[in-house]
Structures are given as structure tokens and as C-alpha cells.
Amino acid sequence: MNRIYLDHAATSPMHPEVVRTFTEALGTVYGNPSSIHGTGRTARKALDDARRVFAKSINAEDPEIIITSGGTEADNLAIFGTAAKKAGKHIIATAIEHHAVLHACAKLEREGYEVTYLPVDANGRVEAEDVKKALREDTILVTVMLGNNEVGTIQPIAEIGELLKDTGVTFHTDAVQAYGLLPIDVDELNVDLLSVSAHKLNGPKGVGFLYQRKGTPLAPQLIGGEQERKRRAGTENVPGIAAFAKAVAISLETKEEKWEQYNGFKEMFKTVLRNEGIKFSENGSHQMPHILNLSIPGIDIESFLVNLDLAGISASSGSACTAGSIDPSHVLVAMFGEKAEQIRNSIRFSFGIGLTEGDVIKAAEKTAQISKRLALQ
Fold this sequence. Notes:
Mean pLDDT: 95
Helix content: 40-55%
Oligomer: single chain
Shape: globular
Distance between the termini: 26 Å
Strand content: 5-15%
CATH topology of the largest domain: Aspartate Aminotransferase, domain 2
CATH architecture of the largest domain: 3-Layer(aba) Sandwich
CATH class of the largest domain: Alpha Beta
């Protein structure tokens, strides 16, 4: 059976050119970037070249990029690193953040911090005005994701950044799901910290970065050597970083093309369902193009996902980090409430490289067939 992979928001396959870059670097760029000999300098150049790509992609300066092991570490560094450097004890987040943010905030709450979790509307969008109303004299950090990983809703980051300007409050955005698809300019967004992960845009797992605006207070969370300008200890994963840079370069070249293609896939998928007489509603609005989250009345998500898997289709019920859990999606709960039917009947399809129109149509047809079968049970 040829599987159809529709879970690119959870993780994406590596681009063939990225694989080549990665494997070549594994065999040739093996030096420690901190070593002063020629082999080390070769690794340092690869690291510096990659950092330049990352910085340019978000209109930042090279020293403002901190290489991490991925989005989770970048989020943790942003939150714990800010808390350790600033005197206040109040943080503002939204109820739909990734668990890398929510669990970090919960840990700080256990240590005596107060966290205000802002609500979102039925489309999964937070109001900038709510951020303004939640600000206090002791607020040290506002953290709001750029694009939601479950329903795809894009948040008003630039608007929030503008109102936080000159307040002294650090502004962090988790851009893991949006990076590579949305245009990102840290000056236009007015963010101080921004998290990114490679494996969401066809790069390798285990590498990412945190943008830190010059002058933004941040305490290191990993202690050891003096790598990353003493902000993140540990010998850098140079082959992974080089491969990540290749993935970023490709994503910048193909961003508009992917936007159009993935939006086309979404409309194609929904058209097939309508033609098959399947009733559904779409969760979220003002979305990133690659995420399609649908509520289909009459189904139960666990059995639905099992049937899709047996049919050779990989999809998800929400965040990949809670896959296999029967707990309801915290994003859908925030949008609709704990008793809403969307909690039990919503499924996320997400698109990426390697998919064809034929794949999308076939997946939609099988989704319709399974929906009809399960609705009769």
C-alpha cells in the first residue's frame, strides 16, 4: 500500500537536497567549531554560513541567532531565560500555545509566577486588545504563537508587538509552524524573541534556533562551554545546522509556490467531501495554507484515525506532542468549550512536499467513505 502522508504539521520529510547536504556534511564537516585548527575552522565556516542564512530569512543580524536543538528548547530558553533575568513575576500567554510554552509557563507558576492565559475566539484568534488589558506593572513577558499548529490560525503578532513597543515587556513568538510559509520580518513584527524548528520545513529533526533581539535580557539554560556567545552551551550539530540552512534556502525560494499549491489542496479536499455529500465545518480562519482542520458530525476521532491509517492515510487529531492521548485538544477546548462536539469529531490534515493532486483527491475520497461508514454505526 502506498501511504498518503497528510501530517506535515507534525513533522515533514526531509527535502532530497537537504538529505544530500546533511549526508555530505556528516562525512566532511566533522570538526569542532570551537577548535582553532583548520578542521575546526572548516566547521566554524559552515556554522557561520548557516547562521547568516537564518538571520537573513527573518531580517535579523547574525549574532542575534542562537542555535538550539529545536523548537521546544527555543521556547524553553525564551521563557525560562527571560524569567531568570527580569524582576517581575507576571507572564501573559494564550490558551492555545504549544505545550513547549504552556508547560514551561506551568512550571514557573509552581515557582511563584502568575500567568494570564488569554482566551481566543471561535476561530482560534486572540485579540491584541486583550493583551493590552492584561498588562501589569510586573509583566515581564508576553508569548503568543505566530501560527497555530492545530487549526492554522495566524495571530496578530505585529499588532501586539506595536502595543508592547517601549513598554519594557519582552515579546516572544513561537514561529515553529509558520516559519518557511509566512513572510517573517522581526522588525515588522516587533518581536524580541522568536522560536523556529527545522523539521517543520523539510529539514532534519534535532535543530532549530531562537532569535534574540540585541539588548533583550536572556539567561542561558544550558551551562558548559562558551558556544553561541555563551548563551547555549554544547558543541553545535554542524551537519544538522548546514542541512537546516539548505532547507531554509529552499523554503524561501518556494514560499509563494507552496502557498498557492497548499491552498489549492485544501479547496480540492473540501470540494470532494461536498460532492460526496459529507457535512463538515472548518475550524479556524485567517489560516496558514497547509493546515486543514475539519469537524465532521457523527464520527469519533479515535476510530476515524484508525480507519484512515488502515486505508493508508496519515493524519492527526491535533498536536503531534499529544498523539496517542485521549485527552481533548486544548486548542479546540479554548475555541469551543469543553462540551462542544468539535472536541470529539475534529481531524487535522496538513499538506507538504511530495503530495500530488491525485493523492489529495484519493485521501478525500477515502475520508468521505470512512465518514459515511462510521456515521451508520
